[in-house]
Amino acid sequence: MTTHTEISLSSINEFLDCPLRYRLHHVDGEKPAWLEPRIIHHETIKQLICLMHDSKWNMNVGHYYRDIFDYYELYRDGENRIPLLWMNRERTLEEFENAAARILEDYRWRRENREARVLYAGQRFRVEMEDFILTGTIDLVRENPDGTIELVIFIPGENPFPAARLHNDWQLNLMTYALSYGEIKVGDEWVKPALIPGFSSWYFLGADNEGESSGCLIRSEKGEMELEVFRRGFIPLLKTMASGQYYANPGQCQACAYTYHCMERQALLPMELLHENGIVLSRAAQ
Description:
- By secondary structure, the protein is an alpha+beta fold.
- 42% of the residues lie in helices and 19% in strands.
- The protein is built from eleven helices and eight strands.
- Strands 1, 2, 3, 4, 5, 6, 7 and 8 form an eight-stranded mixed beta sheet that branches.
- The longest helix is centred in the middle third of the chain and has 21 residues, at 89-109.
- The chain is globular and about 50 Å long.
């Protein structure tokens, strides 16, 4: 595969939230001050689902949850470990583990999950699109009892999105596009599935809080025409990301882990630009 500009699925999410935060993280290499523990909780649930389908369908979640969570907490970012923002670590972990047990019990009970044959789960993908290589991780690809192939993205929470969002969701479209035209890493090899799934679906895992709603599967069908429409609309976004034009989105400022770097963003301007425009920054202002 030809080497082009590589853009990861997670970095696209960050760019859409706040282009300046994307630059700080993925271009300048700045670390966030902290990470929300719930992010690790949701990654742990996805890994538990993969483990269930692999060999542990009747697992006791309590035997695995903490070990997987601790692994992600310690090694998710390699040597650049980012601290989690805890209020009460032990109490929150207990709540997370109980929620995972409820969510996975509901998942295990559903026939479409129990009888499906998993083709890919938690594996890396890559796909070319003009001058870019898009990378990420497939949540789940399965063959249903009726023989249909289904791509499933697991989404935290209980509130289904509008139908228009399902149609336009770039993440779901990108994974579908990668299955059709890209490669998936199986072991040490990259393979080309060349699959257009019969369904590309969201699986809402349900609320973390006890007594609230259970999981919900919402399906869409995406053929070659829909994928071509997606490709044509997605390439301009990729070019915008690579253009070097980054701005702050004030709507994302609340509880942002890049607040310090953002407040110091005048340092991102080249000094010659500051002099050219007669801008003088006093030490007090800095």
